Sequence to fold (165 residues):
Amino acid sequence: METGKNGTNGPALKMPECPRDIRYNQCVHARLDGSCGDTENATDCPVPNQFFRDLNRAFPSEEHLNRPLPSATMPTAEAIPKIFDSLKELVKEKNRRYGDSALTPPRVFSKADAEAGILVRLDDKLGRIKNNDGILRKNDVADLIGYLALLSAARGWLDFSDLID
Fold:
C-alpha cells in the first residue's frame, strides 16, 4: 500500500482546484496553511492573508504569553500610580514642547476653541488606530490618556474624588 502525504495508507490527498471568481480572477476560498491551492497564482488569495492577520491580532504571540504578567512583577496597586506618574511627566513635557498649544491654541489656521481642538486630536488618533488594523501601540495609549487629561483641564475637571462611590 502506498503511504500518502498525510501519513495514512493510501494515495496522497490531492488539493482540489481553486475555485476562481472570474470577475476578479482571484480564488474564493482559503486553506488554513495560507495558500489558496492554485499552483499558478498561489499568492493572490487575499482571504488567508487577512485570516492570519486577524488571527495574529486575536491571539498573543508566544513571546507575549511567556512574559510575566505585571501582577507577577508588581502589585496592581503599585503599578497604577507608577503608570500615572510616568504619563504625568510625559504629558507635561509634550505640553512644554508644544508651547501649551492644546489649551491656548495659536489659532493660525483654525479658530476652534481649545476643547474642540482636543476633541479633533482624539478623533484623529482613534482614526489612525482604526486604520492601522486596530493595532493599539503604547504611544497610542499615552497620547489618548494625554488628550483626555488635557480635555479634563479644559473643562475644569481637576478633581475626580467625587466619582469614588
